[in-house]
Amino acid sequence: MHKNNESKQPPHKATVMLVSGEPDKAVLVFEIAVGMQAMDTDVKMWFVLYGVNCLKCSSSRLHRGVLGI
Q1: Measured distance CA(21)–CA(63) in Å, rounded
Q2: Helix or strand run (H / E) with residue 15
Q3: Confidence at residue 65, expressed as pLDDT on a 0 to 100 scale
Q4: Full domain range(s) for residue 37
């Protein structure tokens, strides 16, 4: 019986969901997704309820300056 050292593994997949609209939680979700992507993982991001507000340009609290102004 011959063993094959190169076994095929299914690709790693992950789903990250942002429910909160708070900027510090949104940044954390993006950092986690980027880290997973760096480890060769397929990442899907879902923004539901208040999490969608982080993506809107006009009402986003992530677009503030350094001093929060």
Answers
A1: 13
A2: strand 13-18
A3: 55
A4: 13-57
